[in-house]
Design a protein that fits this description.
It contains four helices and 13 strands. It is α/β, with parallel strands linked by helices and 226 residues long.
């Protein structure tokens, strides 16, 4: 059974998945779709729906797999990662925000490194000396405001070179155009999600195409594919 599950989880640790009590399920109609649905769940005797289903925006190229299956998610490919990953932190522009996950205050010194040749690849950190910035990075204090609220998806935590970096849940652009590989949603939906996430419940996000949902349903009783 563990071998079967690992095909869909990528690098996420199996024991952590089953310890989780919160799940964010994103179902895309097909591999290259840029719009999907999201439903929150909490674990009781089975997985129970929390709140209403909402719409989300995916990467401009749809989904790419975290492991084992083509197309693999790679740096710059415009694909959001398919698989199961932890939600590890929350970030935003409010210095005094309080959440039930670790919080990054996104000031002008906070960056996520997406330079695959840098030793800090796929890490969020504060850099005060701008001369030490790599050739490629994400400023977490964006001028377009889409990082005003957000959460960190623990994709490629081992920082495997070129497999993708800086994957977040964040606000939609005003025109709801596809992302560069993140998952985006409207402000009211995102705020509701961030307030619900609880580090003690080891939240995870599952992103999949609808045709593969049945395999997840076998392992996580109660989740829906519609």
């Amino acid at each position: 059974m563990l071998k079967t599950i690992s095909i869909f989880m990528g690098s996420f640790v199996v024991s952590s998945v089953f310890a989780s009590e919160q799940m964010v399920v994103v179902v895309s109609p097909e591999l290259n779709a840029t719009a999907a649905s999201m439903q929150r769940y909490e674990k009781q005797d089975r997985w129970i729906k929390i709140g209403e289903k909402t719409s989300v925006t995916l990467g401009r190229s749809g989904l790419g797999y975290g492991a084992f299956k083509e197309p693999l998610k790679n740096e710059g490919d415009g694909r959001s990662p398919a698989g199961i990953f932890p939600i590890t932190a929350v970030f935003g522009y409010d210095q005094n925000a309080t959440f039930k996950l670790p919080y990054w205050y996104a000031d002008e010194n906070l960056y996520c490194i997406d330079d695959l040749n840098d030793t800090r690849y796929n890490k969020i950190l504060r850099i005060f000396d701008k001369s030490s910035l790599p050739s490629s990075y994400e400023a977490m204090r964006r001028t377009d405001g889409v990082y005003r609220y957000g959460a960190v998806i623990g994709y490629n935590d081992s920082a495997q070179k070129g497999r993708g970096s800086c994957i977040f849940i964040h606000l939609n652009h005003n025109d709801k155009r596809p992302t560069s590989g993140c998952t985006a949603m409207d402000e009211s939906d995102l705020k509701r999600l961030l307030e619900w996430l609880d580090g003690a419940k080891k939240p995870q996000i599952v992103q999949m195409i609808k045709s593969e949902c049945g395999k997840y349903k076998e392992k996580f009783e109660g989740i829906e594919c519609e």
